[in-house]
Amino acid sequence: MSTKPKKKLTIALVSDFFCPNTGGIETHIYYLGECLLRRGHKVIVLTHGYGTRIGIRYFTNGLKVYYLPFAVIYKSNSLPSIPGSVYWFRKILLQEEVEIVHGHSAFSAMAHEAMFHAWCLGIHTVFTDHSLFGFADASAILTSKLLLQYSLINIDRFICVSYTSKENTVLRANLDPNKVFVIPNAIEKTLFVPDPAQYYSKPITVIVMSRLVYRKGADLLVEIIPEVCARHPTVQFIVAGDGPKRVPIEEMREHHKLHARCEMVGMLPHNKVRDVLVRGQIFLNTSLTEAFCTTIVEAASCGLHIVSTRVGGVPEVLPDDFITLEEPIPSKLSEALLESIRKIETGELISPTERHSRISPMYRWPSVAERTEKVYFSAMKDDIFSLKQRVDNYVNCGMCFGIFWIWFTVLNLVVIRILDVFDPRSNYSESKKKRKRVR
User: Fold this and answer.
1) What is the pLDDT confidence band of residue 20, given thresholds at 50, 70 and 90?
2) pTM of this prediction?
3) Which of 49, 136, 357, 358 could form a disulfide with 67 if both were Cys (CB 3.0 to 4.6 A apart)?
4) Is residue 136's pLDDT more than 60?
5) Which CATH number fits domain 10-186+367-438: 3.30.70.3400, 2.40.340.10, 1.25.40.80, 3.40.50.2000?
6) CA–CA distance from 316 to each of 161, 186, 208, 356 (Å)?
7) Does the bond joining 20 to the residue before it have cis omega, within 30 degrees of 0?
């Protein structure tokens, strides 16, 4: 007896961070969108323009991407403008008949605005948090209390990439844990295969691959690299990435005369990551905070042993024999690196081929898409919140700043009603009927 197929959805994935930019969020959206398309859903991506790339583009995997003409102010983040962006989001969401708006990253202004406009239009919303926030510094407190708590209070469902990330998001945004799901990141295994010939070559090489910023622990490298090089005669380092902390690392190379043993390759496009990873035997991650860290999965898939700081969701990601965890202290990480080098030299670690075969079934994009699809259907079962419910949610977060968010909501609804007069929603249903007749 055949079962009735599930309803196919029209989904909008929204974030400031997307191709041609490179990074974990960009890769996540690209592959998630591709797998959802394969499952029969209609998927579009909304992001801001990158240089001359403005308008509609079609990717080879079938994704339709809207590059909107929004001003970019800082680190690929667009300028927040709730009433200024409603025209664009309303038109696209109605024209594409979107049923789910899925925002990505707490740092993305576009994601928050798109979800805000979506529920004002009666469209269901889902949010994926890719990062961890602290609870002690002023910026984290302000971000959590003034933005996340109010912005996410009316979202239907939430996805986090690790259980540590879930706890962090629930606490800082005061969410209902029953609406928060854990779905880890994934990698494309065919792009990250080991090269045994290079793995067993000499000298032993340690790969570092991350943005060279404080949060990624780039300052620790200034102490770790010279210490390990001084205690091991042949070990080499390759540092891939760029950022404000590149200068101190360059100065360290100069001071300790390590140009021949510490190679700086700069920022890499995603299709070049594997070529650098397979040049080493050990991958070093010095992050001070991390929700998941996809790069260590890519490195493990290429056969490298991982030495990492014990922070955030990192301990959840790999089996114990794949990774050596240590506190984010230079001396302890140096000892962990030297011990891992010794194990490689004595053949005590598992082979790169075995690492790849064991990790291949773990983090798969089709599985991520299937689990995300279940979250979408769960959200679709809920009734759309009434305006009174949403206002009450803002008030329950705190009356003082709740008033501002209520004002934004009322202003947004007024603008939408004005647009409904000059650009009736019936026009979009009529255009849909015409397209069907043409087909």
Assistant:
1) confident
2) 0.88
3) 49
4) no
5) 3.40.50.2000
6) 10, 14, 20, 18
7) yes
